[in-house]
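Support request, priority: normal
Reporter: lab tech (M.K.)
Component: structure prediction queue

Hi team, I submitted a job for ABC transporter ATP-binding protein from Primorskyibacter flagellatus yesterday, and the status page still shows it as pending. I've pasted the exact input below so you can check whether something in the sequence is tripping the parser. The sequence length should be 322 residues. Please let me know if I need to resubmit or if it's stuck on your end.
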Amino acid sequence: GPEVLSVQDLVKHYPVRRGLFAAPGTVHAVDGIDLRLMPGETLGLVGESGCGKSSAGKTILGLTPPTSGVIRLNGRRIDTLSRGSMRPLRKDLQVVFQDPFSSLNPRMTVGDILAEPLRNFDVVPASGRDGRIAELLDRVGLPAAAAGRYPYEFSGGQRQRIGIARALAPEPKVIVCDESVSALDVSVQAQVINLLMDLQRDFGISYLFIAHDLAVVEHISHRVAVMYLGRIVEIADKAALYARPQHPYTEALLSAVPRPEPGRARTRIPLKGDVPSPLNPPSGCRFHTRCPLAIDRCRTEVPAMTKLRPGHSVACHLRTPD
Ligand code: SF4
Ligand code: MG
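Reply from support: The job had stalled in the queue. We restarted it manually and it finished. Here are the results:
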């Protein structure tokens, strides 16, 4: 297909050893997810903390090997590649993490931080590097003089801009944004989101945008996938998902998002308790322990992902095509 990134039946399980109060077991972090990302598209990946969205991101990035499944970048299978064979392909698959401070080497100047990917991926000849660094800084809204300074000299928002410049340096096709704006103040979040959208418009970059904040995801995404305990429970075009959510979990998450127009407030659907442990996920529909609509069948039967209409699929026994 024409997708720049695709994930088929991706599984990430990892064993945990016996702990002080816990028996050994297997964490079902990601349990068979399918995703496709088109050129120039932003796919939001949302869910509460502990739903597996960061594990999915790390596995897709090759930072941890999948248990099973297929990951393709530009049509080429990457999940089976060794670290060494993957290295040159990483040019096209970059990441912006939540905390730029921990991901930027404090002993390196911003110029050195940006020179690294330019050199590693041979993006420009050595003679053109300083010019390219200035261009990158300009693209993310920082002055050229920032190149001579260190990460600690910048604010959180500016550091995130440096992280974005570093991800942008190899001219990637895909950037995985893992809670990239979650640590920032709301006004700074909006600026960084707008920057990401400008870069997408100008360079055709695709984003896998992982976040727990549904308001932020609504602004930047074209499509949104909702994850619960390792599985995708709903995926739809942004407008449809926010206007007509079909999965009770999506409805509950959305009902907690404040709406700007007072007349259109949603009825609040409280989520009972916390996300159950991914060590022993509930049988049947994994959401049944918290679902206000659960029926007997939900405890035993796994709901299949069902296409309700073009571009809108959901995994719930109560939702069937019109
Ligand atoms: Fe709720 Fe059952 Fe639908 Fe799961 S399948 S979301 S438990 S109604
Ligand atoms: Mg996380």
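Residues 49, 54 surround magnesium ion (ligand 2) (CB under 6 Å). The mean pLDDT is 92. Let us know if anything else looks off. Ticket resolved.
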